[in-house]
Amino acid sequence: MLTEIESIALILSLKVALVASISILPVGIALAWLLAKKDFYGKSLLDGLIHLPLVLPPVVIGYVLLIVFGKQGAVGQWLNTYLGIDFSFSWKGAALASAVVALPLMVRSIRLSILSVDSKLEQAAMTLGANPITVFRRITLPLIMPGVISGLVLAFARSLGEFGATITFVSNIPGETQTIPLAMFSFLETPGAEFQAMRLCIIAIIIALLSLFFSEWLSRRSQQKLGLIK
């Protein structure tokens, strides 16, 4: 049986990962489509900014989030004053940090799927009178669904394992921001708590594997419906 601290960390991790991955899905699809389909001034800069979290130290990401979305930050202060949203030292901030570091993986996965779609199918639909929104909804989106699912699961798994940006931005508060990686960190700093850390490590591995298996199953189902595989 898990202890109360372990159970809370597990539930909070799943909550943060789900909120982070689902909230960035529309943004991820839009950015992936923009980068794959459009040529515009500053495209390379936008591409670099999107993928910047992949190469920046997580602590740097957390510090930037603290400056921008903290209680004294320009955006954070406005959100807190006018909308009552406070990211500082809360699970919402942990979800925000996870979303930022997971977004590049989602965009990359979906963008590759969009690039693999035969543009002749889209052109044929537009020739028959379909508007761009209908083409995307009826042609492009079903074809890229395996990539969308893959990107969503990658984002979920990355969010589940986020540590550096989270602890820098929202600290390590049990019951509020202490996800599985942060709880493991606390256990490793506590003499005699190595067993609890190992238990959370195993749980994290199991959740990640189940997520990948589920992603593969959904992807195959999607391809079967499209007739791409038997």
TrEMBL record:
Coiled coil: none annotated. The chain crosses the membrane at residues 12-36, 48-69, 139-157, 197-218. Pfam families: BPD_transp_1. GO terms for cellular component: plasma membrane. GO terms for molecular function: molybdate ion transmembrane transporter activity. Residues 10-211 form the ABC transmembrane type-1 domain. Keywords: Cell inner membrane, Cell membrane, Membrane, Molybdenum, Transmembrane, Transmembrane helix, Transport. CDD domains: TM_PBP2 (cd06261). It is a multi-pass membrane protein. Its main location: membrane. It is found in: Cell inner membrane; Cell membrane. InterPro entries: MetI-like (IPR000515), MetI-like_sf (IPR035906), ModB_ABC (IPR011867). Part of the binding-protein-dependent transport system for molybdenum; probably responsible for the translocation of the substrate across the membrane. Belongs to the binding-protein-dependent transport system permease family. CysTW subfamily. PANTHER family: MOLYBDENUM TRANSPORT SYSTEM PERMEASE PROTEIN MODB. This is Molybdenum transport system permease. The gene is modB.
